[in-house]
Structure formats: structure tokens, C-alpha cells
Amino acid sequence: xxxxxxRSRRRGSRWMGRAAWACALLQLAAAAxxxxxxxxxxxxxxxxxxxxxxxxxxxxxxxxxxxxxxGQHSRYRLEWWYYTGIVRTAEGRPFGYEVTFFRQGLNPAPxxxxxxxxxxxxxxxxxxxxxxxxxxxxxxxDTGRDSLGLSGAAADRQRVWVNSWRAxxxxxxxxxxxxxxxxxxxxxxxxxxxxxxxxxxxSGGLDRKGAAPGEASWYYSLTRLATKGTIRVxxxxxxxxxxxxxxxxFGTGQLPADLAGWDWFGLRLDSGEDLMLYRLRTTDxxxxxxxxxxxxxxxGRVLRVRLAGPAAPGPQEGExxxxxxxxxxxTSPATRAxxxxxxxxxxxxxxxxxxVEPAMEAQEFQPAAGLPFAYWEGAVRVRGERAxxxxxxxxxxxxxxxxxxxxxxxx
Length: 411
Description:
Blueprint: E1 4-7, H1 9-14, H2 16-31, E2 78-88, E3 94-105, E4 121-131, E5 136-145, E6 151-153, E7 160-162, E8 165-169, E9 177-182, E10 186-194, E11 199-200, E12 206-208, E13 216-233, E14 236-251, E15 259-269, E16 274-282, E17 292-296, E18 302-307, E19 319-331, E20 338-347, E21 352-358, E22 364-365, E23 375-386, E24 389-399
Parallel strand pairs: 1-5, 18-19
Antiparallel strand pairs: 2-3, 2-14, 3-4, 4-5, 6-7, 7-8, 8-9, 9-10, 10-13, 11-13, 12-13, 13-14, 15-16, 15-24, 16-17, 17-18, 19-20, 20-21, 21-23, 22-23, 23-24
């Protein structure tokens, strides 16, 4: 299928000065040192004065509390709120969408008393819509800073904004959210209502990415959010409904230096299971021994997933082993990056065998404001078997590091 890529002219020209400024600051922040900060037994930061304060690393145990933990965690240097979904019109026309907010901390304890212009964090937002029926892809990005309240995130609820793009709490829904992100040519206005409680990934929400202390993040998912609202593309608006996925992750220096990129899956099956799986790729082409994920069963039981490999340890109690292998690649005409878009995933102990294929090929987010590298993020379709019975599903796939290195952006 030949697909068109639509880009935001407004954020591709008028905003380029601010984009270059933000990108430079993000890369400088990524290279800055960040000594570990003391924590208490619950994993929270110990009190510190603004002068000499340092960012906290993810380790130990955390006492989670929602909706508080939907908010920002300023003691950690990098944080993101990630929303993807597949929605359809009443006639069945499908769309995929992505709205992501990133926070890059510059100071773990900014002193606001001197000036309202002081900056504690920089913000970056990505917006993309895939018109899966017509093979068209729209993307845009925006940047901001938390001075003067231009961008920011609440500390006690799911509220984050970058200029006019926003995620706000949904009334009468502890984990629900209202998304509003509009660009010149396209946009989304959606309400997401959680059908399942937050799922803690890793060990109690601590998701290790490397062997060194602190190479980890706090990470949870909302795997099924009933979604309704409006998608706007090409001058037309469509009433839609479907299902979304939300990830929230925060940490400091969570990725090891030898990490080249990752392959991430967020899949929902019609048999009731939800699977989050990631393969961390090292610079020598191997999958890290810490690759894995989480399988949420239809009855609510949570299983930790360990991705099989020669360096991976055997499964522990409450774990299952999975295998993920690329089956087919696609070469981007824009960046010449070769992305593995079709996959085979197996969880032998559960009799689960899946084939994952892109709903459309051209869903590459090309370099934009605040992002020095391209990545592929798009809707996928799933088919396969569970214990001898056919299953189908859908979700999102994210592929990074195929169009150049991460350049320290997540370390």
C-alpha cells in the first residue's frame, strides 16, 4: 500500500526557532550529570533544598496511589505520558492515533520565588493520526517550558499540557482522561474511560532496563480505555469510538549506554488478554537479557513475561517465557530506515501464538521539534491462537533506533 505522510506546516516552519532551542536544551540536559538522590522506604525523595538537589533514580519499592501517581514526578529527570488507540466511525472506518507528552527535568527542586520565568522542566508533545482506510499519516510536534504555566503537569492527577495540547482528568473516572490536541490540518478530541485498573509492570512497577543501579523506571499501563470523541483529518471531522492504551513511565538514567533502541508492543486480544512486550536491542544487535513485559489475563491475573534469549535467566515464579521474532521489514522512503513491521510472538506455556502485522506501513514519525531522530509508531493487527482456539486483536507497535542512534535522549 502506498501511503501519504502529511506534516504540520505550522510546527514545521513558524515554530522552527523554538524547536531548535528546545532540541538543543533537551540534548544538553541529556548529557548533564545526575547523582542519585536519597529515598525513603516507600521510594519517595527525601527532602532537599533547591541548591545541590539531585535527581532521584528508580530503585527499591514504591507505594503507589492513584490518581496521585497519574501526575508528574518532578524528582525524576525523564517522564512521559503515552496514549495510543484505534477508533472507528459508525460505518467502520478505522483510524489510529498517538498523543504523547514528555517531560525533561532541568532542576529537581526549582526555586520559583525569584521569577515566574524560571524553568524547571522542558516539555515535548507528539501527535499523530493514521487514516487506515485511505493510507494517510499525519504528524506534528510541539515544545514548551513550565515557566509562566505555559506547559506543565499536575503533581496529583492526570493533567499535563504543552501549550494548547492537553490531557485532563475525566470526571467520575479515577483513571480516565480527556485528550485535546489540534494542529492546522488534523487533531483529536477524545474521552478515555478506564475499563481495567492500572497494571504495574516489572516488579511492583519497577521495570529494570539495565544491570547497573538506577537503570530502571517506574512504569504502569492502562491497557483498555473505552474511547469516544472526534478525529479531524483533511478538513473533515469524524465521530469515532474504540479502545486506547495508556503508559506512564518515569525515571532517571534508566537506559544503559549500550542500548541501540527497542521494539515495543501493546496488544489487546479479543479473548480478553492484554500483552505489553518490549525487546531492548544492544549495539551489537542482541536482545538484552532484561527484555520482557506483562501479560494481563482476562480474569485480571497478571503474569510477568521474560523474553527468551541465550543471556536471559529462566522464568521465576509468576513469570512466563516468550519469544518474539521479526518476519518482514519495510524501508522508509523518507529516512531509508529499515523497520521490522511484521512479527511472530509466542508464549509456549500459555499456548499463545500470534502474528503481528502493520495496519499500514507508512507510520514513521520523522524528526521534528525537540526530537533528533525518527521512529516508527503505528497501529497493528493481530491474529493467532490461544490454547488451540483462534484469537484476533489490535494494538500499537513502537520501533526506535532504526533511523539513527538515540543520542543519549533517554539516558
